[in-house]
Specification:
mainly alpha, Arc Repressor Mutant, subunit A, Tetracycline Repressor, domain 2, 70% helix
Length: 225
């Protein structure tokens, strides 16, 4: 049997991902089955399993294929190395996260990402297998880590004087961001419309988060947020 060319395999995978994207526009991720994708692609069950072993592999490839690599990381790195005040940089990093998430939930790939995160939030085995492979997850975690490292560095320098233990502030920020992701998914599911959602208020909520964090940090030279 002649060897199948890599280009042929890539084309087939891309077609499957394209069909998946069309289905994701029609219904939430948790309602989709492999049979839906098989029907949309017009393949037999045996053919589609040559390219993807399960739905999780399809979702990971679909999300990664439509992810703009390092976009959020570049924005955060640029802000952290800027000449703005420490307060403005810390607040700006948090608001960048909000703007990025707001952009995501307005797209099919972003909503798919958040739906997948919520779907497997209570399944450690799935989380450990899937989340590290998602570029969007890596970007969000990088931005959060970079922001908190910047805050802690300036605490050590005496620029910030936190009124709460740093671990408590970190947990608050993490829970806040997770809550936004869950809210984005639940509102979309309740509305029954993947083209409408809570995205309009996300940046405003992150601006409020920035104000709260800055108020707890009490910078010596506090600027306006």
């Amino acid at each position: 049997m002649p060897k199948v060319k890599d280009e042929y395999i890539t084309d087939k995978r891309n077609f499957i991902l394209e069909c998946t994207g069309e289905i994701l526009k029609e219904k939430p991720l948790y309602l989709i089955t492999m049979r839906d994708i098989i029907k949309k692609a017009g393949f037999s069950q045996g053919v589609i399993y040559r390219y993807y072993a399960n739905l999780d592999e399809i979702y990971v490839d679909y999300i990664n294929k439509h992810t703009n690599d390092c976009l959020l990381e570049q924005r955060v790195d640029s802000l952290v190395s800027s000449e703005q005040t420490e307060t403005d940089i810390l607040a700006g990093c948090l608001m960048l996260l909000g703007e990025y998430i707001e952009e995501l939930v307005q797209s099919v790939v972003g909503k798919t990402f958040f739906e997948l995160v919520v779907l497997y939030s209570g399944d450690p085995e799935k989380r450990n297998a899937i989340f590290p492979r998602l570029k969007l997850k890596q970007s969000l975690e990088y931005a959060q880590r970079k922001t908190m490292e910047y805050a802690m560095c300036n605490v050590a320098k005496g620029v910030f004087q936190p009124q709460l233990p740093i671990p408590s502030i970190l947990r608050f920020v993490s829970v806040f961001i997770d809550g936004i992701a869950h809210n984005a998914v639940y509102n979309t599911v309740e509305d029954g419309d993947r083209d409408s959602g809570p995205e309009a208020g996300i940046s405003a909520m992150f601006q409020l988060l920035a104000k709260i964090v800055i108020s707890y940090m009490e910078a010596k030279n506090n600027g306006d947020v």
